[in-house]
Amino acid sequence: MTTTTEAASTEAASTEAASTEPGHRDAGDPRGGRFDSSLGLIMLLLVVVVAQGPVRRALSAPVAQSWMTVFTAVVLQALPFLVLGVLLSALIAVFVPPSFFARALPRRPAVAVPVAGVAGAVLPGCECASVPVAGALVRRGVTPAAALAFLLSAPAINPIVLTATAVAFPRQPQMVFARFVASLFVACAMGWLWQRLGRADWLRPPDRPAFHGHGKGAAFWASVRHDVMHAGGFLVVGAMAAATLKAVVPASWLRGAADDPVVSILALAVLAVLLSICSEADAFVAASLSQFSLTARLAFLVVGPMIDLKLFAMQTGTFGRGFALRFAPATFVLAVLVSTLVGAVLL
């Protein structure tokens, strides 16, 4: 009797073990139809091989070529400066003590905003670099109004951008001064506006994994990896959107818009948002739009570094969607108004 029982137990155990093997699925197990990843990869490769003719023709179409060109250009222009911003962000997060910012910036937020706006001139990068740095400033306890003023001013008034503007407009040196004045004024005004009307629950504090217990070197590289993966993903999303819109907007719309002074300003402001060009290169694009007035091109140069598709995506990922949906439209409207006024006076 005991032998029979032991044999039955052994047989049941063998059956149970067999049922747990990778290749075994019970007929009644709903997981029996689960798709195997290796099989899926093989089928995908077969589909690509079979459909390579249509895929090649689709990729060789002018629209697809334009899309890939814009997407690659936006990513390649922005990526080095994104990495620069990530490195600066990690340096601030790991090596700069929080007490430094308390000493460097005035205690009164109304005064700290213009100081932070002027400090944006020291960051030699574009808007992709300013977002992670501004996030690090907020994490370090800097008042959000001052960090946002820095975020907006840094891509537009740093020496590299102003030098590129001077080279792009050799016969209009006033464009450099007009860009500096308009961009700095918008950055400070948005900082003061956030200080006055902004609410704490509109701005989500930037996430940061805890690196306690690590050495400074390990914490630095862990911070770099986190920010590259986080901000880089939103950069790719923004670049894809910019490339899609660039590929479908007819060029004839630009020629028609240049004839009306008001429409031309709005058209180039919207174009700056859609194209999402790096601030180190946007002056050369603006100079090529010679059918538009200098004021309209100034709006292009002021709006682009402050709000475009990739920047909106990165702001959403860093500070939250609620912040970006409020901050971006207000920045766009103020940048257009200030550009028009400064252009009327200086240009």
From TrEMBL:
Keywords: Cell membrane, Membrane, Transmembrane, Transmembrane helix. This is Permease. The chain crosses the membrane at residues 38-55, 67-96, 145-169, 176-194, 228-249, 261-277, 323-346. Belongs to the UPF0718 family. Residues 1-30 are annotated as: Disordered. Residues 1-21 have a biased composition (Low complexity). It holds the Pfam family ArsP_1. It is a multi-pass membrane protein. InterPro entries: DUF318 (IPR005524), UPF0718 (IPR052923). It is found in: Cell membrane.
